[in-house]
């Protein structure tokens, strides 16, 4: 029997639509600038340059419906994303076999301390202070592939207080879901419980305490989050 010097933390997990079961989370990978218009608004190249990823912590995922405005930030931005959840993994996964590893999909937000990210970019430093802070990834319930299939087209939209801020279509992803899985598996050993946030369309912008964000992906439902 394994003993620990103090009780270990609970395993981070996500709710599943229509089920009392939970999806245990192992790692969270996030791709940057994966919609052409967003790449342009962030000063990047909208072409298929080599993809790049950063990570959030598994316990950054939060399904409570509330997002606490973080300390040390004066410019907090919303980024709506489709979430991909894996039930298996491996190394060097071929693109044409990648979707076999997907358990389901969901709707999520990559909340970003943009002012701290800008400082990090200028200094050539990592982004974790801007991306991987507490509860920085609000998410909705996951939808199993058996119910929703593999969405590769459909409207993705975010409103703030009823005003449309971000809108796009999943068919505008520069790197598609199978390509992301395959690329990641060349550099990491993917496994059950891994989550991939697939990038955000253009229109990212600030939110304040009291704002209500509603994120939706066609076929995957919606997520309502209040900034507190």
Short description:
The protein is of the alpha+beta class and 228 residues long. Helices cover 15% and strands 32% of the residues.
Overview of the molecule:
The strands form 5 sheets. Strands 4-3-15-8-9-12 form a 6-stranded mixed β-sheet. The mean pLDDT is 95. It is 15% helix and 32% strand. The radius of gyration is 17 Å and the shape is globular. It has a single domain, classed as Alpha-Beta Complex (Fumarylacetoacetate hydrolase, domain 2), CATH 3.90.850.10. It is α+β, with helices and mostly antiparallel strands and 228 residues long. This is 5-carboxymethyl-2-hydroxymuconate isomerase. It comes from Cereibacter changlensis JA139. Keywords: Isomerase, Metal-binding. GO terms for molecular function: acetylpyruvate hydrolase activity; isomerase activity; metal ion binding.
């Amino acid at each position: 029997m394994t003993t620990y010097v103090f009780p270990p933390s609970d395993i981070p997990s996500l709710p599943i639509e229509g089920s009392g079961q939970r999806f245990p989370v192992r790692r969270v990978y996030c791709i940057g600038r994966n919609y052409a218009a967003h790449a342009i608004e962030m000063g990047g190249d909208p072409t298929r340059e080599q993809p790049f990823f950063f990570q959030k912590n598994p316990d950054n995922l939060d399904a409570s419906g509330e997002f606490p405005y973080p300390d040390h930030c004066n410019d907090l931005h919303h980024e709506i994303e489709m979430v991909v959840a894996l039930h298996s993994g491996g190394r060097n996964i071929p693109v044409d076999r990648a979707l076999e590893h997907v358990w389901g999909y969901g709707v999520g937000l990559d909340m970003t301390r943009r002012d701290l990210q800008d400082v990090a970019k200028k200094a050539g430093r990592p982004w974790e202070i801007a991306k991987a802070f507490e509860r920085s990834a609000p998410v909705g319930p996951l939808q199993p592939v058996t119910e929703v299939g593999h969405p590769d087209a459909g409207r993705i939209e975010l409103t703030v207080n009823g005003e449309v801020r971000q809108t796009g279509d999943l068919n505008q992803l520069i790197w598609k879901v199978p390509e992301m899985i395959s690329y990641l598996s060349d550099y990491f050993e993917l496994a059950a419980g891994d989550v991939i946030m697939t990038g955000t369309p253009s229109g990212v912008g600030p939110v304040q305490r009291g704002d209500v964000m509603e994120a939706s992906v066609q076929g995957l439902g919606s997520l309502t989050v209040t900034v507190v």
